[in-house]
Specification:
CATH class of one domain: Alpha Beta
Low-confidence stretches: none
Distance between the termini: 106 Å
Oligomer: single chain
Structural class: alpha/beta
Radius of gyration: 27 Å
Largest sheet: 4 strands, mixed
């Protein structure tokens, strides 16, 4: 018996991990719910052409999307609003002034006219892009022979 009616309590040397598991599960649920929402973009049918993949870059690429109707969308800002030619030049130019080494790519629908793709590339050059890349699906089309 302890003197004075008090018992000496021994300290527990174990960590209770249940609260940490609860926090981890809540974070897992949050990430699972928000991950699909982070994938944004305009649906385009990319041409299927084989080629060498680009080496990975440190930053994010600046992508100008041309939808089947020939409207332009930029991967910065809100990509759900189509942009005018002047807006494309202005926004791409401001990004390239801040980071001139930024990779600039065109993602055009397979059914869009060649004139719209050429206009997109011209707008990017007017904005100051030194080089412009093209995004395609890696699946290779059969080569057509000369007739």
């Amino acid at each position: 018996m302890a003197v004075g009616g008090r018992q000496k309590r021994r300290l527990m040397g174990e960590i209770n991990v249940v609260p940490y598991i609860d926090v981890m599960l809540v974070l897992l649920i949050i990430f699972m719910v928000t991950a699909p929402l982070l994938t944004q973009g305009i649906e385009v049918n990319l041409p299927k052409v084989g080629g060498e993949p680009m080496p990975p870059s440190e930053g994010e690429e600046l992508v100008l999307t041309v939808d089947p109707e020939g409207q332009f969308y930029l991967s910065i800002g809100e990509p759900t609003e189509p942009l005018t030619d002047e807006q494309v030049v202005e926004r791409v130019g401001s990004v390239l002034r801040r980071s001139p080494e930024q990779k600039v790519l065109v993602q055009a629908d397979m059914d869009v006219s060649y004139g719209h793709v050429a206009l997109a590339m011209r707008l990017l050059q007017d904005a100051g892009a030194p080089t412009v890349g093209m995004i395609t699906d890696p699946e290779e089309l059969p080569r057509r022979g000369r007739e």
